[in-house]
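Exercise 7. Predict the joint structure of the components listed below.
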Amino acid sequence: MSTENKEFFPDIKPIIYNPQASVDDVLVLKHYNQDEIILGKPMHEWLRFSVCFWHTFRGLGADIFGAPTFDRPWDQQFDSMTVAKNRLRAAFEFFTKLGIKYFTFHDRDIAPEGETIEQTEQNLDEIVKLTKELQKQTGVKCLWGTANLFANPRYMNGAATNPDAHVFAYAAAQVKKAIEVTHELGGENYVFWGGREGYMSLLNTDVRKELDHLAAFLRMAVEHKKKIGFKGQLLIEPKPKEPTKHQYDYDAQTVMGFLSFYGLDKDFKLNIEPNHTTMAGHAYEHDVEMCSRYGMLGSIDSNTGDPSLGWDTDQFPMNLRDCAFIVKTIITQGGLAPGGLNFDCKVRRESTNLEDMFIAHVGAMDCFALALRKMARLFEDKKYDALVKQRYASYAQTDIGKKIEAGTATFEELHAFIKKNGEPAKTSGQQEKYEAIFNRYLD
Amino acid sequence: MSTENKEFFPDIKPIIYNPQASVDDVLVLKHYNQDEIILGKPMHEWLRFSVCFWHTFRGLGADIFGAPTFDRPWDQQFDSMTVAKNRLRAAFEFFTKLGIKYFTFHDRDIAPEGETIEQTEQNLDEIVKLTKELQKQTGVKCLWGTANLFANPRYMNGAATNPDAHVFAYAAAQVKKAIEVTHELGGENYVFWGGREGYMSLLNTDVRKELDHLAAFLRMAVEHKKKIGFKGQLLIEPKPKEPTKHQYDYDAQTVMGFLSFYGLDKDFKLNIEPNHTTMAGHAYEHDVEMCSRYGMLGSIDSNTGDPSLGWDTDQFPMNLRDCAFIVKTIITQGGLAPGGLNFDCKVRRESTNLEDMFIAHVGAMDCFALALRKMARLFEDKKYDALVKQRYASYAQTDIGKKIEAGTATFEELHAFIKKNGEPAKTSGQQEKYEAIFNRYLD
Amino acid sequence: MSTENKEFFPDIKPIIYNPQASVDDVLVLKHYNQDEIILGKPMHEWLRFSVCFWHTFRGLGADIFGAPTFDRPWDQQFDSMTVAKNRLRAAFEFFTKLGIKYFTFHDRDIAPEGETIEQTEQNLDEIVKLTKELQKQTGVKCLWGTANLFANPRYMNGAATNPDAHVFAYAAAQVKKAIEVTHELGGENYVFWGGREGYMSLLNTDVRKELDHLAAFLRMAVEHKKKIGFKGQLLIEPKPKEPTKHQYDYDAQTVMGFLSFYGLDKDFKLNIEPNHTTMAGHAYEHDVEMCSRYGMLGSIDSNTGDPSLGWDTDQFPMNLRDCAFIVKTIITQGGLAPGGLNFDCKVRRESTNLEDMFIAHVGAMDCFALALRKMARLFEDKKYDALVKQRYASYAQTDIGKKIEAGTATFEELHAFIKKNGEPAKTSGQQEKYEAIFNRYLD
Amino acid sequence: MSTENKEFFPDIKPIIYNPQASVDDVLVLKHYNQDEIILGKPMHEWLRFSVCFWHTFRGLGADIFGAPTFDRPWDQQFDSMTVAKNRLRAAFEFFTKLGIKYFTFHDRDIAPEGETIEQTEQNLDEIVKLTKELQKQTGVKCLWGTANLFANPRYMNGAATNPDAHVFAYAAAQVKKAIEVTHELGGENYVFWGGREGYMSLLNTDVRKELDHLAAFLRMAVEHKKKIGFKGQLLIEPKPKEPTKHQYDYDAQTVMGFLSFYGLDKDFKLNIEPNHTTMAGHAYEHDVEMCSRYGMLGSIDSNTGDPSLGWDTDQFPMNLRDCAFIVKTIITQGGLAPGGLNFDCKVRRESTNLEDMFIAHVGAMDCFALALRKMARLFEDKKYDALVKQRYASYAQTDIGKKIEAGTATFEELHAFIKKNGEPAKTSGQQEKYEAIFNRYLD
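Solution:
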């Protein structure tokens, strides 16, 4: 049966922008007007939204206590390659109706694994061919690709950190192909999320050996990228735990430290997922800000967790305040390109209507768009930024401050300075004032 | 030296409402216009703001790792009773300039403990006299009083739950006086927060005995209240932990269950502090909603915690979304009176300027006021409420549903119903739709 | 193909007790000697171990990020009823080789759901028949049964708390049958774990209505139990969250309060799972102790979580200290019967060897057995108990203490007592001393 | 009044070792026999216990909700320098009676701050003189010194990370002196714990600037150490939060990464406190193991937190299992010298008896001693270690494994290997087996 021209979302019309949308017109964008210029760039360039293939087209609503709840029209009982192609067509229909210009994928999301590596790669090649056609037809681009190194039982004890070199080799073979495929699809980045790169118990684990192997693996990836001429940015995505008890790429600072130690910091940036940041015990915006200030923020998996839950809920970002913090960092660093805001989110298991997929994305796009509009006021105004700069003025304006920043001061000299100048003045941190002003911009 | 007419905040003018306030005019109320009618009542009746005496006039910025940082003009080196009076005058100047109509206090906040119980009570009486005068002069009223049963070393092993009956008796003597004093000041409620009513270690604790003693204590309080003719509402404030490892009044449901078990549920309602709610692992709004739906929400200690920190930070509520949830429940139950929104918050230890005290309260008042304006739209609109009702329509509209609610259905009957009617239809929970609509009201 | 006499664990010999077992003879019991008399009863009566069917015979090692990893010889590609029977035979072989006298099950664990409720019940009846035969052959008994009201998509929005009365009715029909089946198998208890009885978002939920429905449901269960003459104990198992954001049966105190409020406290006791207790923010032993002291501890799902993880890991209890706390409570209340220590645990996803199933159970049995031996010393010694009693002696030995406990004291009388007697003496809580002594018993 | 010869603990006799101690002889060491040879070294060399001055001699039982509870005989109402000296004498009496050979201190613990920096340094010098005498008399040595850069209000916004260069300078002046004093006292290490080096709010913070300043500060410390000829090890102590919302030295990996990035990894090692490790969301033993495997474990602040509490409780380590994990790492790296096991612990606020100080230390010493005896068996046996090595054997024994470790393998080569060799075998991780064996050693 041919499904090439089938419409999978016949009841959904292309999503449009209408600032006068009623409160319950949730299939209309009230704030996101993609070509509208904000701070000198169109909104879509600031926000670079992307749909993730895995949650949105492979997620079926199963959780650890329950069976799948979603009945998707593209998941009919055909052979697996036909289903894979239908799913891909449904996805591009979805991207197009939503008006999102990018997608992201794992190798195993888009094409089924075969009996052998040859069969698996052949499946992938066939699907990649169709993907390229659909990209050409729709203009939708690939933000990044990645390899799924966590679902197959072979990786249960880790991929690049597996105690068995044979598994390490398998992971290498898989990533080799995944980078090539991402290159083929014009992917602007390639992501490493080490879902099983960690430990379940220290009792059976040699952490140093495993981390050394992980570094070796990443070095090979850099080499291979160069060899095939892939120009995309390599990204590491931190997560503290789940599925493993401890994931080595715990958070932004841990990963940046690892890259420094193993001499990989020129070749990788980070893909930050705020739901992972909060799982690591930090504020929602912490990792994004932390790596941005070191020039290491490559891309964002824009979702949210639930602060009262201890696992990855991958919810759609619907909180203006959180999105505003993220946008503030993005504006400060001048944009995210070649990275983007990838909606690594899933509709709730109970959100079983097809339209829920659209409502969720529209709600999140609008939340970021509103945040962008609000933060644009903050940046145009310049008052806020001036306040922060003033806090640190002594380093720019006093001799002692300049010397400290230049690295030429000594303890003896500073000791003499205190003997001469005595106690510093008390200066309020004014946190509530900053909060109140920030709130005024969010009004 | 006479300080009776001293102005403690000479640099601060009375806070006014100005909807055109600039983003950094943080000593101006942009949203809270106390007498403006919203949903049929003035804003101040919906919100019933209160300043807490302890954090705002006794807090000095000490934390467990550091010394006090605040230099307050009312804490000069006079004798303790003179300082207590100055502090009280400063407080009423603060309430008045801020335009807040209520305050709350612990017995030990306002008057120093003496060498003997007689001396302590005499100090308290003297201060109460001045308080009444200041209330009369300013019109500021007492939302509630309470006894501090946690700071004095005598209570280190608990007050009403102390293993030593002598300490229990001391707590009883103290609460007796505190209720009387609250009555004297026209307090509209009286609060029990059991700061040390819990355990540090199960190894040395008989939890049942301690809870039985706690119930006995509360029964005596009810009796005493009746005896002296105090008409105020008695309230229990849940908190899960800190300073104890486990506090018996863990959260709203625990306290409501305790009250039911011990037959005290007609005599007490709850005072919910959202920072305690989040420490108990719940969503910010959970306890407020939970006890409101059982008719048990008496008052709110409106503050916020930090979801990435595990202790009580008592921050000023500055998050519109959180405040909107609280206001939604308040509107649903028709108001909070005789309870209120008590700012049980402290400026950060680093916020050492006197004006920070005002900025923080203004920011929080405005945040709630804006939330009230937004939620008023939601209630006027009726769309949102209709959506929720529709979800449960089967209980109102089908025979089987009505029987279930009436308590007349049996397993056998329901079994027969399923044999006849088979599988229920699948109904989306539409969480993202609710979130998106809620966001539209917050725009 | 007949598999009636197939041995599923041919490589595993019956587990024996040998106190001289070498450190790595992990298929030998070093401490659990079932018939040995400890404190007047055989070990197996104190500990009443049970194997759970779901994790041990239905769990396949899938997690939310990965596919199943276990290849079980009983899960061959026969029709589903044949597989169900093989699995059952494997289970009884396992129970017998392990020497555990009880098992627990969900209705859906043991028999597959059919197309219709009639088919489902017929499947269940057929399997129950075989189960009874196997029980008779082996002497293994049923500790408790329960209904799975969380895996099927129909329950995604709740079972007894579903917004749709039709789903409520389905749950009722299912529980009716599950109680009958448990009765048929001689189950000594019946458990309610409300896996989806909670909310995902307060925005779309009427919590009061849902809780009223839950109470109505439980009342029907009590009625039905009486009608069919089932004498087993009804149990509720608290859990704070997962899969829902907030589960109504949050923890022991919440459930006890709910039962009191709705007048159900005479008909139900609690089944406590320590992994749920720690997820609720309490100490491992908290809920067990809390409900035991109120006469409400019915049974224990003896497992452990990981304090650094925020989800239910259902690990085997391997920590002597934790087990000792549990055993201490069990001894204090004189035993757990008709409840037991049900190993609601799963081997790790990476523990793919068949022998891992045995090793895990043996390790946990030995851990509890050692705890029992150590705690027996503590009880025989009587020193520890005397210490705790002495802490509360003032309530038994002084007039004021006796009056407080009798409920005849008043605030006025206690106030007078303090005026006369002044400050209480300072008494050390001696936590470290209790810890040190407890450690000496664990040496 | 002369207090030079006063005995501060007249009721406590020197603590002795007696393996036959009764369960409640908690002032006797049952396991720690300092000179007994274990694995070729005396116990005291493996364990290198140290008493911390701050908690044990400056802590008074205050917490954030309550006043001090301890009445210490050395804290009489003399002038502050006399009290400081008495306290010091009491401390050395305590060390000696306890039989602990090391102590640790902050500059401000031992000597009071004066009005000026000159006065402060003079106080310190005077106290250091007495300390040296007491060290000489008793043979007790200094494990490490440190500067208190968090208690004084001047540091409320940070010390080396303060927005004000004047405060940075003050911190430098203070650390200069603290290192000199530590050198004078023969300190074997010097510790940096950055109690206020972090942020309270990202809204008012430039994290990059602050971290750059922190690195500059540490570089000056290295320079100064060399200049004065101090040979002790410099150590950084990670902590994730408290008192700040986010502390830059979050955990072991974060600190190691920071040191790598800023080129400081040759000059610093880490001082790990397990209570901080668990606050960062890791297993108790995680940070100790993590930095040991990178050769960066310098010393341990051996205490414990409470997994159900979100703040630093600094409890005495009384859990054999936890101590065993720590000891396993110590033995693996061949010992901790020049670091040690510093009891950075405080008796509970309710433990007000003087003897509680001894009981707590004895309990913890015994817990570690027993752990050492148990782990010695594990190391002598060699079975456990062989199991772990075997898990990673493929890297030592196969060509592909060797090439991966040598850094000479490529993705292409590994891809070819998989094409040739196909799927790896499934290997159980056997976590429960490791746990069971580990438990056998703990029996």
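Discussion. Chain A touches chain D through 97 residues (CB under 8 Å).
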